[in-house]
Give the backbone structure.
Amino acid sequence: MTKKEANIKMQKRMAHDKLEMAYYERMTELVQSIPTFARDSDEGKWQNLTGIGKRVIEETDVEKMQETAFKLYYKDPSARGVIDTMVNFVLGKDAHITPVDESDKVKNWWKNFCDTNEFDMKMKELVKRCFRDGESFLRKFRSKKAKGVPLIRFVEPNKIKDPNGGHSFGIQTDPDDVEDIKAYYILEKSGTTAKRVLAENIIHTKILVDGNVKRGISFLTGVAKYIVKYGSWLDDRIMLNKIRTMFNLIVKVTGITPLGFKEKFGDTISKTPIGGVAKKRMPKPGSVLVSSPGIDYEFKNLNIHAPDTAADGRLIELQVGKGTGLTEYVVRDDASNSNYSSTMVSESPMVRMFESWQDLFEKPFKKIFAAVIEEGIKQKVLPKNTSKECTINFTGLIHRDVKADSEAYQIQVSAGFVSKRTVSEKLGYDYNKEKELIKKEVEEESDDEFRQRNGEEE
């Protein structure tokens, strides 16, 4: 080896040792700083949601809240789980809208609208946006490409803004009545100008605010900090495991110098002694350690004691359950702390909560239906006296015993307490669709009987 090569090798080793020392110093600082970051360090991430201390919410608060909620939904599995669970339970598998007017013209017009706009997906997206962002904006269009059928498209919440500051939150209202909305301002591509759109062309759905508040608040408000804390708690546990595995092998050397130890075990790389202690790397996975006289290997117990902190993680998730109304086994995706009886008891208030949300979302869906019928009347596709009423059919939240439910509904229909349409909707069926299918089956059966009877006579 030349002198130049030796110098290069020495420089590489010194650089490696310096990097190694920096790594251990960082890890030491981390261990020493645990009491500091164990405090409320993640609070700032959601200060705009949890720190609302005023009766009036500022525009900047809403913008930051929605931006944070959007990112959290796509980055944190707990946040996404909460939102998706709400959407799935509120709408169910086959939520749909049934016109009260049973004329074929109305049915076809509504079907064309649903097919053109993929309305089944729009329903889910509207609910998801409301829970995630606190609100949704649907804009109505008249398009020649759709052959007269109105189009609906979502507008991003951060686009609803008046750049001139003339109307707060981008919503123009009656000066004396904030609930009487006149128009919405939608930012154009430049970001410096906005288009004024009449309120009749925007369907705005907001949640978790009073009627005189212009913009909604995310469903994650209040629980977001505990969702973030749970993620930080898991990260801390992972980091703690890494720290403890750094020193899990101790080699005791007696009667041999560090230099001899280095020469005897050349397959493990020795480091420059610091403070009289030789630093050596851990053996690679699969290595076979052969003990020699004067050398003892001791594998230390990690002593992580994960069960000691399991209760802490559960308590954090229970806070999320308290804030959302979801039961423990739904929030944690774990029913180990529940039995059948406790599940039934805890499920009842959760079902009532979902029913309450269904009542809320009925309003925008009915507005959409009425707007579609109005457009049909304007275009003279539908008669002027066409009913703008409809029924929102949500999938039943719980079916404990379909047979028992069906028998109970049959008794109520016979007694004249409810209609067949109501029972059909309660069971999650599309009444008009099922009615047509039943009629078709009856006709097919009659044709079969007719052919069979004629065959026997011949």
Observations:
- Residues 399-458 form one domain.
- The CA atoms of residues 199 and 256 lie 87 Å apart.
- Confidence is low (pLDDT under 50) at residues 30-44, 46-52, 266-270, 339-346.
